[in-house]
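Methods — Computational structure assignment.
A single polypeptide chain was analysed. Its primary sequence is given first, followed by the predicted tertiary structure written as C-alpha cells.
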Amino acid sequence: MRKRARCRGMSGAILGETTFAVIGLLFLLSAIRTFTSTLYMTLYGSVPNDTVGAIAFAVFAASVLAVVVAFRSSPRRAIALSATLLAAGTTLAAASRWNWGDILLSAVAVVGGMWWLALTHSSRSGDGGSPFVVGLPIALAADLGLRAFLRTIPIADLPGLIAPAIALVGALLMIAAGFAAYGVERTWTTPGLRGSLALLAIPPLLLVAETGATDPGQAAGIGSFARGPEGPGAWYAIAILLGLGMTAGAAMTARARPQRRVVALAAVALGAVVMWSHVPYAATLGAAILAGGVLAAAATLPDTAARPAGSPWLSAVALALGWSLFVGLAFLFYAYYAPPAAPLIATGLVLIGLVAAAPVPGPRLGVPGTILVALLAIAAPLAALVATPSAPVDASPRTAFRLMTYNVHQGFDEGDVPALDAIADTIRSETPDVVVLQEVARGWMITEQHDVLTFLAERTGMQYVFGPTIGDAYGNAVLSRLPITEVEYLEYERQPRLRHQPRGAIFFKVNDVLVIATHLDHIADATDVRQGQVHSILAKWNLRTPAIVAGDLNALPGSAELRLLEDSGFRDLAKADGADQATIPASDPKQRIDYVWGIGVAGTQAHTVTSTASDHRPLVVTITRQK
C-alpha cells in the first residue's frame, strides 16, 4: 500500500512538473516572439539594424544572471521568482497595446523565462530527471496546434480581453502545477561537460523550429507549395504534414531506447539538408523530417546526467551561450534577408549537442505522451483544415472588376500593433474582386509568426497567389474572387548594398487583363534602383494589353520611374479619374506612393479608404477593359 501510494505521489509530481514545464515553455516562446517582433516593428527604420540587434543581444545575454538569482537562494525560491517574472511579464504584455510597454514587459518575461529554464532544469529531487525531457516536445507540439486552432494568430495578439484572459488562466495553471511539483526540497545539480554542450544546443534547436521545422508558412514556401492559385487551407495541410513528422519523432523516442539519439541525429541532419535544398515539393517533405528530428532532439538534449552541486552556474552559463547564439543567428537570418546559413549553423549546433548528450534513465514521453503530441500537432490542424471555408471563384463574364492595392505592413497597424482583424475588415468593407498586397509575412518570428495571407484569404473568402521576395515566407500576394490564370514571377536584380531589400512582381491574368502586382524599392534616394525595376517590368510586359501595374511604387507623382510607365503608354488611373490622393501616413496622408497604372483599360470610382489598420491607406479603382 505504501509503495503504491508513493508511486501515485511520484506520478502526480511528474505530471505537475510536466505541466509546469509545458506552460512555462509556451510562455517563453510567446515572450520571445512578442519581444522580437515589437522591437523590430517599433525601431525598424528609425535606428540602424545593428542597434536593434545589440538591444536584443543585451536582453538575451542577461540569461547568465540566473547564477545571481540562485546565489544564496533555495531552488524553490529561485524557481518561484523566475517563474513569476515569466508568467506576469507574458500576461501583462498580452494585455498591453502600447509598444514600449510591450517591449519592456516582454523583455522581463524573456529574461525571467531564460532564468526559469536554467534553474528548473538544474533543480532536482532525488533521482528525478529534467521535466523538459517530456515538457519540451509537448510544448513544441502544443505551439503548432494552438497556432492552427487560432488561425495562425498567436494568443498574445487575440483581440480585446481574450489574450490576457487566456494568459491569466495559463499563469494560474502554471502556479498550481508548480506548487504540486515543487513541494519537496530540491538541490542544485551540474550537468558536466557533455551535458553542458547538450544544454547549449537547446536555444539553437528552438531557432531551427522557428525557421522551418514547426513553421508551416516557411515549410510550404521552401518547397514551392502554397503559392496558388488556391484557397486558404494550404497552411493547415502543411501543418498536418509537420505534425505527422513530429509524431513520428515522438514515437521513435518515446521510450529509453539506445538508438533514440541516433534517430534524432539522422532526422535533423537529413531533414535540414533536404529542406534547405529548395527542391520543389521535396524540400517541404524535408521540413516534415526535420520536424520529427526536432521533436526527438527536444526529448534528448535535456536528458543528461546531473550530479549534486552548490550552484547551477554551469547550466546557466551553457544556456546563456546558447541564447547568445540564438539571438546572433536570428539577427543574421532576419537582418540579412533569410540566408540559409543561419538555420544551418543552428542545425550544426544541435547536431553537436546530440553527439554530446548522454541520455539517462528517467521520465519519457511514452505512449501517452506520443498520443498527446499527435492530438496537438495533427488533430488540431486537421480540425482547422476541415473548418476552413472554401474560396469559391466567380467565373461569370463581366466587363469590369474592382481592384484594390494595399500595403498591409506585415499585419500591423500604423502604430505597429498587430491588426489583422482590422485589415481584413478594411478589405471586406470595399468588396473588391482583386486585391494586390505588399509586405505579406507568412510566419516570421519577428512578425509574431502569423500568416498574413492565410488569415486574409480565409476572412475575405478569396483565393490567393503568393510571390516570395525575401526568403520563402515574405513578399507580394494577390487575393481574388475571380479566376486567376497565367501566373508568372519576376525577381528584380539584387542590389549590392544591404539597405535595399530584395523585391519582385507577380504577373497574372484576371478577367482577360494582365495585372502586374509589385512593390518597388523603398529607399527615398534610390530612384535609379526603382527605374531599373520598372525597366524589368516593361521588358517582361512586352507590350501586352490590356494591362495594369499596381502596388506600392514608393515614388512620388512626376518622378522619373513613373515617367517610364507614362512614356510606355500607361496612365495613372486614379489621377485620370480625379482621385489623386495621398496614401501615407494612414492617419493623415501627406504623400502618394500607391498606384494603379493601366493601358487598354479605363479606371473609375477611384478612391482611397480611410483606415489606420496599416501604415498605408488602400487605393481602390474599378477597372473596365477598353475596346
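Note: The domain at 394-625 is CATH 3.60.10.10 (Deoxyribonuclease I; Chain A).
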